[in-house]
Design goal:
The complex is a heterodimer of chains A (about 350) and B (about 140).
Chain A lengths: L3 E7 L5 H7 L4 H8 E5 L1 H4 L12 E7 L2 E3 H13 E7 L1 H5 L28 E6 L9 E3 L6 H12 L5 H9 L3 H8 L65 H4 L17 H10 L7 H9 L4 H5 L4 H4 L13 H6 L7
Parallel strand pairs in A: 1-2, 1-3, 3-5, 5-7
Antiparallel strand pairs in A: 4-6
Chain B lengths: L7 E6 L3 H10 L8 E6 L7 H9 L4 E6 L10 H18 L7 E5 L5 H18 L10
Parallel strand pairs in B: 1-2, 1-3, 3-4
Classes of the chains: A alpha/beta (about 350), B alpha/beta (about 140).
């Protein structure tokens, strides 16, 4: 089998996703048998100019959000050259933590030192996800994507016709629809998300009893009961609005889910879902007490859309197609009305 | 340029507020015509998703109206609506939706005047605020 040509690129992010590609335990040795890394600035010191060399790339793993003009340029070039483009990790797929900046009004880009050196790439007004810039074939969520998924996607995309044992390992970790295509040796449908379909609660082993809490708790203040649902214990666990696939890694260890897999398939807006779920656990029927409990919550938008603000927050989506009366808005000076 | 006419989505509970809205019409009370009524069986079934979706798709205001506490046809549906409203209002505000754009009101079947008053008031307030555009967050 001829080795596939693979590229890895990091836009704005923390590089944990690139480390995740290497963090696949001893399997990293066998990577060499079926993947040839052509372009990887982090490891090989490749430069963007290297992409001008002739020859295609089979699979590109793009990590990080698009927040500078340089990121955008790299995304376009890599899309042009690659047969398969994968948005790898929460930042590339949904905007991730850098995307939180979209919750604020755009500020002027920093200009570097006074004499203008080093020259910094211009900042975009809004942080975008990879898919908002170029068409993306597959999405791998997670911050960073867990080991087993990283290995799985490597096998299903990179060593497509590899050993049967490898394929069945990959298939056992994927939703049925994607697994079926992986097993039959064809690529999964374009746009597939390599993760589960339900919410994290489906794979979380904790017991749900009565859902009531009298006040918000924080993880550093209490020792959570190891068997009971974390939300019931007053912790802001976002498992019920988040896509499963991680196998409940965080909740299993006693940490509330932070939502790095994005919203579960059938949810319209993760923030609204969380508001509904959390409010229903308030243990009172008095308006004043509800108000008191609600006051303890700070930065709801930053919490509920922690990894997904640019892609999945319904109220942050650009309204162009949705709003016919746009000219009215511009005539009013295009000002932001509260 | 056309003068701005706010679009207000109203979720009216079948047993109280919808009847009040109906009565307001029958009694020929003067009302602003900016509302788009959605009849729901209980204010308790108005999921925060509905409210967010209304705003995301171009509504300028959302009114949720139900029976007075204690009068709910389903015993405590309106308390559920009330419980959600605090966090929802907070989330909306963080996402750049002014608090005047979302209202939760108790309007009994016998209060058509209150219905007309709330609708007129809200329509004026939102007219003063101007159109809401999703994707625009305050500092």
């Amino acid at each position: 089998m001829e080795a596939k040509k693979v590229a890895v690129y990091a836009a704005t992010g923390c590089r944990a996703c690139e480390n995740a590609i290497l963090d696949i335990s001893f399997q990293v040795n066998s990577l060499d048998r079926f993947a040839r890394f052509e372009f990887w600035p982090y490891l090989l010191g490749s430069r963007l100019e290297d992409l001008e060399k002739p020859g295609d790339i089979d699979v590109t793993f793009f990590t990080g959000a698009i927040s500078t003009e340089c990121d955008e340029e790299a995304a376009r070039r890599l899309r042009e050259k690659s047969k398969i483009l994968v948005a790898f990790g929460a930042c590339a797929a949904f905007g991730g933590l850098p995307g939180l900046v979209n919750l604020q009004q755009a500020k002027k880009a920093p200009e570097g030192c006074e004499d203008g050196t080093p020259e910094l790439p211009g900042l975009r007004r809004r942080v975008a996800t990879l898919h908002q810039i170029v068409p993306v074939d597959y999405f791998v969520p997670g911050c960073s994507p867990p080991q087993n998924y990283t290995w799985t996607i490597m096998q299903s995309l990179v060593c497509q016709s590899g050993a049967a044992a490898r394929m069945s390992f990959a298939a056992s970790r994927l939703p049925r629809r994607i697994a079926r295509s992986v097993l039959s040796g064809v690529l999964p449908p374009s746009g597939s998300v390599f993760a589960g379909e339900k919410a994290v609660c489906a794979s979380c082993g904790r017991m749900k009893q009565e859902k009531l809490f009298a006040s918000l708790n924080r993880i550093h203040r209490i020792e959570p009961d190891p068997l009971r649902c974390l939300l019931e214990q007053g912790l802001l666990c976002q498992g019920l609005a988040t896509r499963e696939g991680c196998g409940g890694l965080c909740t299993g260890a006693g940490l509330p889910c932070r939502g790095c897999f994005g919203k579960a398939q059938d949810i319209y807006d993760a923030g609204a879902k969380m508001v509904s779920a959390v409010s229903s656990t308030f243990d009172t029927t008095e308006a004043a007490e509800m108000q008191k409990i609600a006051e303890a919550f700070v930065d709801l938008a930053g919490t509920f859309y922690r990894y997904t603000a640019p892609a999945q927050c319904a109220l942050l989506q650009t309204p162009e197609s949705k709003r016919p009366a746009d000219e009215d808005f511009e005539a009013a000076g295009g000002a932001c009305n509260g | 340029m056309n003068p701005f006419e706010p679009r207000i989505i109203t979720f009216l509970c079948n047993w109280c507020s919808y009847v009040a809205a109906d009565a307001a019409g029958v009694s020929r009370l003067s009302q602003k015509t900016n509302t788009r009524a959605v009849r729901v069986f209980c204010s308790g079934m108005v999921d925060p998703n509905y409210v967010i979706k209304a705003f995301a798709q171009g509504a300028d205001g959302v009114l949720v109206a139900g029976c007075h506490p204690g009068d709910c046809h389903y015993i405590a549906g309106n308390i559920k609506a009330l419980r959600r409203s605090f966090l929802l209002r907070k989330l909306l505000e963080e996402l750049g939706v002014d608090e005047k754009r979302f209202r939760l009101e108790w309007i009994a079947a016998s209060e058509p005047h209150k219905y007309a008053k709330v609708v007129n008031e809200m329509s004026e307030q939102i007219r003063a605020l101007g159109p809401f555009s999703p994707g625009c967050v305050r500092d």
